[in-house]
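Q: May I have one protein plus its fold?
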Amino acid sequence: MPRFSIIVPAFGVAGRLSQALDSVLGQSFDDVEVIPVCDAPDSPAGTVAAAYAERHSRVVPLTSPPAGGLGVARTTGMAAAAGTYLLFLDGDDVLTPGALAAIDARLTATDDVDVLFFDHERVHWWDAGTATPPLGPAPDGAFAPDRAPRLTGVSVPAWSAAYRRAFVTGHRLAFPASHFTDIGWGGLVTLTAERIAVLRSVCVRHLVRRQGSRLHSPGAHQLDLLDQVELVLTRAAELVLPEDRSRPLFEQLFSAVLRTAAHPERLPAHLRRAFFRRAGGLYRRHRPAGFRPPAGSVGVQHRLLAAGAYDAFHALRAVNQGMAQAAQAAKEAPRPRAVRTRARYALQLRRPLDPDLAVYCAYWGRGYACNPAAIHAKARELAPRLRSVFLVEPDAVGSLPKDVEYAVIGSRASWDALARATYLINNANFADGVVKRPGSVHLQTQHGTPLKKMGVDQSTYPVVAAASGSFTKLLARVDRWDYNLSSNRHSTRMWERAFPGSYETLEYGYPRNDVYYTATADDVARVRRELGVPEGRTALLYAPTHRDQSSGFDAPLDLEAFCEAIGEEYVVLLRAHYFYDRGAARGEGRVIDVTGHRSSEDVCLAADALITDYSSIMFDYANLDRPIVVYADDWDVYREIRGVYFDLMEAPPGRVAHTPEELTALFRDGTYADASAAALRTAFRQRFCQFDDGRAAERVVRRVLLGEPPESIPPVIPLAERVPAPAHCLVRS
């Protein structure tokens, strides 16, 4: 029997779950079992938990339906637990170093009490600030609850205590199925316990989510708070608590009630009066004899609640509420550059949304490209009623297909479309001045699988952070997203970390990659002719990524010398990062500059093999199941300056070369495409080509633009059943 069973509910925290599990498994005290509770074995969090279970026998994953919420997940974990003590840890929190040893020592010293409360830190999601809520006064050793009457348990999170399992099971304690489960659990536990102790050491670091607690989100679930208050007060009445215990319990419970009543936006309008009326009834029924409300404005709220004076209470809050709304409106005011355009945009925002208007943009207006273009094309097929407008910069107008409606970014037409569009689709972000209107749907498609650190994860890398602009503005843009696309589970987890928000992740694959499964041999031949690839030559695509420490493009490889060394049968297609797009320039001889070609997907189709360093193009190209070589001449420098999510050298998509000589040798002897290289590519594809199957655009259009339910969306075709577009040349093996 382990000393501790640590139960970790893991709904929607796949990006940080590994940190929580590592904080437990890395403790010096290891007499534990860890029980991650996920919504499904194949969910993002379930996949993480399963990987830990394969490596650690102490990790025992369970599943619980997400509809049951946190309380049901914890109760599910308790039913399977075998430890002497139960601890809980949210999936995005961590145990502090030495926490379990300190808890064990305190329990031993207090002769295994029923409940041990310990301190925790609330760590703000972004800045380094922390707050440690006090547990309040309590005796030094083990004590009965009546010796610390203000320690009621209702304000102590479940993960800030250890509970003796025999005590919990003996009294049949379980977490209420409620959003406010901690209030009911904490109150009932403290009312039931006979011996309690306190450990004044911080044992848990709780991440305060930037989108706020779910308990503060608006909805009918706010009524659950009153259910938990009534549950605890009813139990307290049955026990006939002495006044010195009933008064602080009552005051703390109604402090939570008044916080909700004082924020009307947390409740739908038709439920606000009912909430207040029921809360007032509970207040009057359970108010301890002689209870005196606190002083000041809080005391006024107590009196109005006791009197059932909803209109007066509402009027008291109206002025403050109006001021808050005015301040928020000022923050959200649109900021198009021209004064007349700004006024026009503000006027257009007052008009109703156009249910048939969709606005697209790719790479900050560089043209008709990437996921937005693929979705646009599929929408014209499946949702022809929609009017689609592509936003582009002036110099990209000439490259647009003739039948694509467009508006130049910054023009009146672009702001008119942004103001009234129901659907807004982008692979980067719209301008800061764009307002997220109620009823509009924003889809973030992304434009690659993250190897390098992204979003707020860049903050600890000074060179990158200095060039990233305001992280506050970045996250304000993230708050506009309703959906975020993912092409693999790795991306799902990393986007959750890099762009924390309340959007829904769509694990549908990248629409731009559909062509890798739908293109034919004729399509491949056509693209090669357009790019100028000589017939019968093996085309090697060379696609290096951007270096944050560099101010311009300087190819780290001498391509002319490389071509000379590997033989006449090869040509190189040079595609620099899009930061260095130099238009439609084309090289001569065996190096063909395709940086200015509109479609990365076309270039990949034309290439028989890929040479890259750390560009995300490798994840897309892997769908073609053609050879990939990583030229890692400065991996250690790149990893130090840019930051990465995993070690590419340990899990590459093919052969790795560190010098021009090593790279040349791979192509001279053909080992770039041998069986060992193919085995590496197969493992890489299994990890990163999970959802790209040729139908991603269809899934997106059906779900986002047509509003079809998730269960009707076409499932992802298994990787083994997909047939990539054929390569033009047979590579040597």
